[in-house]
Amino acid sequence: MNNEEEPQRITLVDENGNEELYDILFTFDSEDFHKSYILVYPTGSNDDEEVDIQAFALPEGDDPTDPQGGDLQSIETDEEWDMVESVLNTLVDTDDSTDEKD
Fold first, then answer.
1. Most buried residue among 3, 48, 57, 68 by CB atoms closer than 10 A?
2. Is 93 contained in some domain?
């Protein structure tokens, strides 16, 4: 029996108008910036390959999985990027230490 959940997915439109499907890695709130953030990666990526993780700010009260939801916002400041990278690095470090115990 497979206990893995199907990942939540969203569709992003690139600068050329092409729609691409992304899996949601996770979302989190920042009290420092009073925003929520979402990290996504391309659907279909293998576990053993390096993936391009993208991060966005969520409009207040927006549900990224709602097809009628608003647009994701670009992260504009270096301070926000530093915070997002720190959260991601913490997640990666936690996953690595969990994997080692299995």
1. 57
2. yes
